[in-house]
Design a protein that fits this description.
Layout (H helix, E strand, L loop, with lengths): L9 H16 L3 H5 L1 H22 L3
Helix pairs in contact: 1-3
Organism: Candidatus Scalindua rubra
Protein name: Four helix bundle protein
InterPro entries: 23S_rRNA-intervening_sequence, 23S_rRNA_IVS_sf
Length: 59
């Protein structure tokens, strides 16, 4: 399978879905009150997509 754009890669699509779920879960409960933990988890989730995008330039 070849992808013309990184957004077409299945790993990118799944990464975005997971990131959206992480943002949703971290909006409530203990995460909502612990800003440091919430922000750290969200940054880690965002990094997955950024890494996929930067590595896809060599595809």
């Amino acid at each position: 399978m070849s992808a013309r754009y990184f957004e077409d890669l299945e790993v990118w699509i799944l990464s975005r879905e997971l990131t959206n779920k992480i943002y949703s879960v971290s909006s409530d409960g203990r995460f909502a009150k612990d800003f440091g933990l919430r922000d750290q988890i969200r940054r880690a989730a965002d990094t997955k997509g950024q890494n996929t995008r930067s590595h896809s330039k060599g595809v």
